Amino acid sequence: MYKLKYTFKTDTLFKMLFVKYPHLLKGLVATLLGIPDENIEEFVIQNPEMPPETLEEKFCRLDINMKVNGQRVDIEVQVNNEGDYPERVMYYWAREFSSALTVGQRYSSLPRTIIISITNFRLFRECEDFHSHFQLMEATRHTLLSDKMGFHFFELPKLPEQSDADEKDMLHLWLSLFKADTAEEMEKIKGMEVPVMNEAINAYYSVTASAEFREAERLREKAHHDEAQALFHAKQEGIEQGIEQGIEQGIVKGQTQLILNLVKMGLPFEQIVKSSGLSQTEIEELRKMVIPQ
After folding, report:
1. How many angstroms separate the first and last alpha carbons of the chain?
2. How confident is the model over 214-249, as pLDDT tens digits?
3. Cα–Cα dist 289/260, whole Å
4. Hey, what's the torsion of the CAs at 164, 166, 169, 170, to 10 degrees?
5. Long-range contacts for 14-17 (Cβ within 8 Å, ≥24 apart)?
6. What pairing do the DSSP bridges indicate for beta strands 113-119 and 131-137?
7. pTM value > 0.90
């Protein structure tokens, strides 16, 4: 099987493709939120830019932020589990939600804010559902406090096999496209002759062949390499420093034990001071350790 160098999970490809083809993004978001495409009357991408200096940042987040029928919707693909992902997502939500309030506005005017995460790892290991939807509810009665907070998680490893896909199940088809790692898997989806899927795959080949994408990916890879090198260098420095400290501590411990032995033997203070380099006060403190008052 021919493994794809870039997939829909590649963050530069994800953002560039769906910004260039907003009608595909609109269809994807409608499917992930479970609303008919035709019901979306307002659809605006609010962060279409992908400047080179941003791509070179080690921890750059290539999400797509949208305004959908008055709601704020943010979508992101996360390939690796770097820890604390739920907290990270809540932080993004809080930032998006709070920044929507302008001076003089009432709190009730804050828009519904939804974060969509497509993860390439198992986030909720206690269940096998590939889609989890969280809202703010009372713990016992399950009464909704507010519908202005929403989190959707789609875990690709939990998605059923492609062979089980129905050509009418758009959610499964879109997620299968994101999960696809080989040309064969992508061609199998294309072979189902679903127009929007074929259009998305054609867009994939068009974007990955462009010089703009290759340059963006070069900068992105450079940032990843720089980060890996920095972490390796820090680790090596830490190991070397630990070895040096260990040697120093070992020497000090050995010297201390030797002095304690001399004190136990009852050697005169003056002789111990002369041979150790310590003061009479320091020797006295060591003497108290072995000969309590």
Report:
1. 79
2. 998 888 887 655 555 555 555 666 655 655 564 455
3. 8
4. 100
5. 14/62, 14/64, 14/77, 15/50, 15/62, 15/63, 15/64, 16/50, 16/207, 16/212, 16/213, 16/216, 17/200, 17/203, 17/204, 17/207
6. unpaired
7. no
